[in-house]
Amino acid sequence: MNRDKFSITRPDDWHLHLRDRAALATSVPHSARCFRRAIVMPNLKPPVTSVAAAGEYRERIVQAIPPGGSFEPLMTLYLTDNLPVSEIDLAAREPWLAAVKYYPAGATTNSESGVTAIEKVYPVLARMEEADLPLLLHGEVNDAEIDIFDREAVFIDRILQPLRERFPRLRIVLEHITTREAAQYVTEAPAPIGATITAHHLLYHRSDMLAGGIRPHLYCLPILKRDIHREALRAAATSGNPRFFLGTDSAPHAVTDKETACGCAGIYTAPSALELYAEVFEEEQALDRLEAFAAFHGADFYGMERNSSRVELVREDWTASERFAFSDDEVVPIRAGEKIRWKFAGTGS
Length: 349
Ligand code: NCD
Ligand code: ZN
What we know:
- The structure is a single chain.
- The protein is α/β, with parallel strands linked by helices and 349 residues long.
- It has a single domain, classed as TIM Barrel (Alpha-Beta Barrel), CATH 3.20.20.
- 33% of the residues lie in helices and 19% in strands.
- It contains twelve helices and 13 strands.
- The protein has helices at 24-32, 51-63, 85-93, 122-131, 151-166, 180-188, 199-203, 206-210, 227-237, 255-258, 273-283, 290-302; strands at residues 5-9, 13-16, 37-40, 72-78, 97-102, 135-137, 172-174, 193-197, 244-246, 310-319, 324-326, 329-331, 339-348.
- Strands 2-3-4-5-6-7-8-9 form an eight-stranded parallel beta sheet. Strands 1-10-13 form a three-stranded antiparallel beta sheet, with helices on one face. A two-stranded antiparallel sheet has the order 11-12.
- Helix 3 (85-93) packs parallel to helix 4.
- The longest helix has 16 residues, at 151-166.
- The chain is globular and about 50 Å long.
- The two termini are 19 Å apart.
- Residues 15, 17, 41, 176, 249, 251 line the site of zinc ion.
């Protein structure tokens, strides 16, 4: 592989927050520039809890795609204690409705309407298993007595393992994994299970966020962990194991909501996500495995066709923007004002 320039099959983003309305004018072009498809998270205010609402939201996203773009939003339903089983039947009929997202109530941004006790949604999960509609997990418990750095590992023991025993055929994605425990669980568990890994959890660990000053733009959930976990995630992402695939969890927040006494969780990575993954894979001497992680494994897991067009990346330093307009505010992207080593050079057939 030529190390100064290479092309891969056009990738997909299997975990993305686009927000809504005016914010879409910023978020959609940043993702659509290089990703062909994206699984769009439903944690709006109010959350997307019906197929009808997901269809309307999808239409607003499509309106924000720049002319000539070929970006396909795949929508998700937000699982609440009260989601009717009949909604699963409706969802299973729509090719653009890809999955149902589980948030433990209160665990992260706009998760107040999430599930309060997993037993409450057993009938819905049973129907999803029958219909082969994937369940996407925000894999953290939300218990005040569990330390924030342990919430993912505890989720695996308390929620995920019993869930898989009860619904062994339910297709599950453990989203944005952050720990050695999660990487190991997904590697060893019986199928069907997969996991998304973000660029920021491959690049940074908790000292990057907290040592020498607090960096609110590196604060996300699940929170950055110790470096040993980042190492385990790098090993998983570059292993070639088809259970691990790209999901940016790009999650824009207005700068005034980030730089404040109680800042929101979420890192805006879409403007440079693919380039940052390339940086990680190069550091791991695994650039030849980037294509499968970014463009094959997720499509295969979801039973969708792999993309046929390609994208090109060149080795060229560029400086990330300091800010972008964002509704009536601004958003600060990852690496704002700092150097990025790879540059996206366009899509082609
Ligand atoms: C996400 C958001 O802002 O919507 N935030 C984050 O830190 N990742 C929600 C989520 O995926 O947890
Ligand atoms: Zn997310």
